[in-house]
């Protein structure tokens, strides 16, 4: 089955990156010049592993229940945070790396594969899901991993449940253990780089991530990007740490972005938010909502829900590597 026949992207192309930005503008996801500019400046192609689609996004409306850090999710978060990413400000990106399967792996579905997936009984037939993954040509899973992966299969299935024929989507939910075992681990640092460009050399953009390999590859990606000089100057940094604790050294932050779903609002992150600052954070387990947390000047907090989302969990390193 030729599910990848319609691949229409190439890596490292500025034009393609511009095309993606235009696409997101057309669909109303990018609303401001500021966000368009930064997404044009930071070439997404530098932040994805070889062979994955950097410049494609789903034309489905945002808020469909499988949004993760696909391009439109990045754009949404940048739009929500843009007033808090002014030159000279401090920004924190928690969970700054990405699992390959999470945000940067887009694909086209053939109608027949989609029908099979929608009819798939995950309870009795986990293995099939992984066959389809292999057909999608994105993953090299070991057969002995299969029985440990029921929950991921479930997420895959629920992701596909509302898929439409021409959809280009994004996967999540593969712990880095699997990626590491298949040799396709990739970190990003994409949003951290965008933040760094927005806050500029007088500001600080800090990424925190708890998987060492992801920190390392994020840094490599950043060094190849338009944010490289900010890295050299030290106004952009990525640290290996438990992001639930934030990064107190450069607090308080005008903007905090959390790229993984927390069970509830992490107090250390709220504490590290500056009065007048804003945090964007997915909260929940199976059902997750993207919360926008504003800290008022008097220190009180207001929270609203932007949209339904699905992210990988903000959890301990051990739990993540075990796929819990
Ligand atoms: N911000 C990325 C998304 C990353 S996926 C992007 O926009 O593409 C979520 C990331 O959160 C993963 O890299 C995962 O390793 C990380 N993560 C999960 N729990 C964490 C924790 N407690 N501390 C730091 N990073 C965490």
UniProtKB/TrEMBL annotation:
Q: Which Gene3D superfamilies match?
A: Vaccinia Virus protein VP39
Q: Known InterPro entries for this protein?
A: PCMT, SAM-dependent_MTases_sf
This protein's GO cellular component annotations are: cytoplasm
**CDD domains tied to this protein:** AdoMet_MTases
Q: Name one GO molecular function term.
A: protein-L-isoaspartate (D-aspartate) O-methyltransferase activity
The highest taxon in the source lineage is Eukaryota
Q: Name one Pfam family in it.
A: PCMT
Q: Where are the transmembrane segments?
A: none
Cited SUPFAM superfamilies: S-adenosyl-L-methionine-dependent methyltransferases
Leader sequence range is none
The family this protein is said to belong to: Belongs to the methyltransferase superfamily. L-isoaspartyl/D-aspartyl protein methyltransferase family.
Q: What is this protein called?
A: Protein-L-isoaspartate O-methyltransferase
Recorded source organism is: Colocasia esculenta (Wild taro)
């Amino acid at each position: 089955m030729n599910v990848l026949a319609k691949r229409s992207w190439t890596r490292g192309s500025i034009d393609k990156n511009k095309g993606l930005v235009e696409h997101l503008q057309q669909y109303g996801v990018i609303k401001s010049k500021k966000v368009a500019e930064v997404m044009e400046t930071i070439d997404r192609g530098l932040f994805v592993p070889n062979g994955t689609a950097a410049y494609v996004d789903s034309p489905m409306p945002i808020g469909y229940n499988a949004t993760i850090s696909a391009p439109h999710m990045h754009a949404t978060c940048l739009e929500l945070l843009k007033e808090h990413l002014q030159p000279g400000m401090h920004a924190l990106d928690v969970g700054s790396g990405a699992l390959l399967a999470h945000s940067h792996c887009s694909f086209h579905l053939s109608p027949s594969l989609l029908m099979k997936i929608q009819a798939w009984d995950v309870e009795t037939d986990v293995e099939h899901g992984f066959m389809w993954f292999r057909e999608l040509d994105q993953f090299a899973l070991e057969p002995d991993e299969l029985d440990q992966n029921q929950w991921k299969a479930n997420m895959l299935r629920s992701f596909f449940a509302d898929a439409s024929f021409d959809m280009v989507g994004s996967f999540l939910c593969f712990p880095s253990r699997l990626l590491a075992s298949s040799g396709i681990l990739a970190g990003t640092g994409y949003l951290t780089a965008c933040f760094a460009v927005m806050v500029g050399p007088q500001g600080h953009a800090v990424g925190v991530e708890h998987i060492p390999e992801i920190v390392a590859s994020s840094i490599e990606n950043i060094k190849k990007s338009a944010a490289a000089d900010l890295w050299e100057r030290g106004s952009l940094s990525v640290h290996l740490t438990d992001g639930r604790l934030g990064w107190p050294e450069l607090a308080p932050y005008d903007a905090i972005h959390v790229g993984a779903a927390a069970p509830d609002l992490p107090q250390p992150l709220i504490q590290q938010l500056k009065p007048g600052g804003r945090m964007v954070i997915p909260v929940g387990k199976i059902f997750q909502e993207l919360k926008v947390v504003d800290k008022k000047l008097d220190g009180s907090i207001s929270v609203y829900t932007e949209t339904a989302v699905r992210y990988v969990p903000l959890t301990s390193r051990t739990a993540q590597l075990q796929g819990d």
